[in-house]
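Weekly puzzle thread! Below is a chain. First person to post its structure in token form gets bragging rights.
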Amino acid sequence: MIRNGVKQRWAEGRPVLNGWLSIANSFSAEIMAAQGYDSVTIDMQHGIVGYDGAVPMLQAMRASGVTPLVRVPWLDPADIMKALDAGAYGVICPMINTRAEAERLVSYVRYPPAGVRSFGPSRALFSAGPGYAAEADDEIICLAMIETAQAYENLEDILATPGLDGVYIGPADLTLGLQGKKYAPGFDRREPEMIEAIKTILHAAHKAGKRAALHNGTPDYAAEAVSWGFDFVTVSNDVRLLAGAAESSVRKFRELTQEVVPANKIDTGGY
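Winning reply:
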């Protein structure tokens, strides 16, 4: 079986830079995968991506050698197992709030006796190479998202789950969960209490021997997160990168021609 590039970087003591795909298009997935990310995640929760769209995206990314991951819509065995059967090398699962939910997540990712994953890796048998049945449990990454007050309260119990590789912080939802509507949801938190919460999750993960991942809006914040000790950082997504590049191009043109920037520009906010 082809080795998991994320696990290889971790074994070498290096952080992982992860890209993020919310647009259901194989060509844009191919472009993103060729830009030098260590891994690229297809977002089937908040992205505009269904299963029939995710499969050709996984196929398009294969040529680049990037490690393909999927954020599944929810803690559902069918979604998780189908993503893995399609060739994902790891699953990021949202809204894991308890040890019991973390145990269910792990069980859906691992084959018996470690879990209950059903055997039928239709595409993965080809995309991952020979030896999948024997080696998948060791190569597939399983990350639980910590993004609610309940998950934060149950953090140590969640991290004690055998077979869980680490936790992935969703800062927008975590801010809503811990602070309500005191702050606008979004990435790259600067509020002292949110930085403290993020670092608490990071240190708890490492204490438990797990990996810590963080979703970021900018490379500057992601680099800072790596300096704190994060093992895995996502920087932006295809939607914001496309919008940002387009906005920059339009603004530059308006400035050069001394025109006013249109008032209908969409603010992508914390997405």
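Puzzle host: Confirmed. Bonus trivia for everyone else. The first helix runs from residue 5 to 11.
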